[in-house]
Specification:
It is a single chain. The protein is an all-alpha fold. It is 80% helix and 1% strand. Helix 9 runs antiparallel to helix 10 (274-293). The radius of gyration is 21 Å and the shape is globular.
Length: 419
């Protein structure tokens, strides 16, 4: 008669298997498609905010409150999504969240008041938050099976999707109404979610390959393997998840600040033209995408702790130059270096949190990171009122340095169970 442990192992084995390399490649492509979908749809919505503001006749203050619906929906959903992933699986949850997110982007242009806009943005934010947790959790499973630190590549797809969505939105803004544009965007998103979702649903969740269990991080290893969920003692694992969430927060703070304040700094403080000022965030985003595309090779060469430490230090130096430089071109160089430095901090932090405690770790670290993105823009605004915008932007450098110090300080924290 089989023991309970053997029965449980058999059940888990039926749900998790080691697919062939071809199936792993298909899973990787499908998960990458969801990351691209996330960035593309969100950027398309952002490109039409000015037109929807006019349509709803909302003041700046009312629009700001309505936009909080995205943040509120996303933050409130992330921890719940971790539980849904454990109950129903990462793959079905990813598909359901992708469908909700893509479909709901068609709702904002149907509103005619700030209140109605805020309510539909709660739905949109719910899909956004759920998709981020679910697809990152699915990526963590695949990383353990591949035994390669490929998380930066997934986040590169998000960055490239965002650049494509923003660029396309800018090109067609004068030719299509927000209703038609976002409806077409929803149709595209739903088709992409259906195509990629079919692969996710049809293939089993990959189990770690032999030897891919808990392992201490080796700085000189040729490949960086992730520890299995639950390898750490529960209390220690929760503490480490909070640490990685702090690193994510420091990174996202910088992303939010750059998105909202880089152009204004160049135009207001350095007298850049409107077109040149707009290049500030574009340079930052482009170099972040480049950094993520090369992130796997960097992690395999340096190891995770060194990559986090070097990235945080590089971002701190770049942002000091970007915020305090006396000329536009030096500031743009600083923004580019900042994007390169910050590129891999968030994906590595999320991957390590997920490797420790599964979807719950991804949810917790993502919630902290998303909080940093919310915290950045208003904090910069208050500090700019009290001091100046260049001084306020140096807080991005300070938090990047904090991320580097925290990463180095916890370099020996993840150890094999029983060590």
């Amino acid at each position: 008669m089989p023991t309970p442990n053997k029965t449980r192992t058999a059940i888990l084995g039926a749900r998790r298997s080691v697919p062939a390399d071809r199936d792993l490649a298909r899973l990787r492509a499908a998960i990458t498609a969801f990351f691209f979908l996330d960035g593309f749809v969100f950027a398309g919505w952002v490109a039409r905010i000015p037109a929807i503001k006019d349509q709803t006749s909302a003041s700046e203050g009312a629009l700001g409150l309505a936009l909080l619906g995205v943040s509120a929906g996303g933050t409130a959903t992330m921890m719940a999504t971790g539980r849904l992933c454990r109950r129903f699986g990462n793959h079905p949850t990813t598909v359901a969240a992708g469908v909700l997110f893509a479909g709901s982007v068609a709702l904002p242009p149907l509103t005619h008041s700030a209140l109605a806009l805020g309510l539909v943005l709660l739905v949109f934010g719910t899909g956004f938050g759920a998709l981020n947790v679910a697809m990152n959790s699915a990526a963590v499973d695949l990383i353990a099976a591949l035994r390669r630190p490929v998380m930066p590549g997934f986040h590169a797809a998000f960055s490239l999707g965002g650049m494509a969505g923003a660029g396309l939105g800018g090109l067609i803004a004068d030719h299509l109404s927000p209703t038609r544009h976002l409806s077409l965007l929803a149709v595209f998103g739903l088709l992409l979610a259906a195509a990629a979702g079919r692969t996710l649903i049809s293939l089993p969740v990959p189990a770690p390959r032999d030897g891919a269990g808990p392992a201490a991080e080796s700085e000189n290893a040729a490949a960086v393997s992730e520890p299995s969920p639950g390898a750490e003692r529960p209390g220690r694992a929760r503490w480490l998840v909070a640490v990685f969430g702090l690193i994510a927060l420091c990174t996202a703070y910088g992303e939010g600040a750059m998105a909202d304040w880089a152009a204004l700094h160049l135009h207001q403080d350095l007298d850049a033209s409107a077109g040149l000022a707009a290049a500030g965030y574009s340079v930052f985003a482009l170099m972040m995408a480049v950094g993520r595309l090369t992130g796997t090779a960097l992690l395999e060469r340096l190891g995770q702790t060194r990559a986090l430490t070097v990235g945080g230090t590089t971002a701190a130096a770049g942002m000091l130059l970007g915020s305090l430089a006396p000329t536009v071109w030096l500031a743009l160089l600083g923004f580019a270096v900042t994007g390169l430095g910050l590129a891999n901090l968030f994906p590595v932090a999320i991957a390590r949190a997920g490797a420790l405690t599964g979807p719950g770790g991804v949810a917790a670290a993502s919630t902290l990171g998303y909080g940093g993105m919310l915290l950045g823009p208003p904090t910069i605004g208050f500090l700019a009122d009290w001091y100046s915008l260049p001084i306020a932007l140096t807080t991005v450098a300070a938090l990047a340095a904090v991320a580097a110090v925290v990463a180095y300080g916890t370099r020996n924290a993840v150890r094999p169970a029983g060590s």
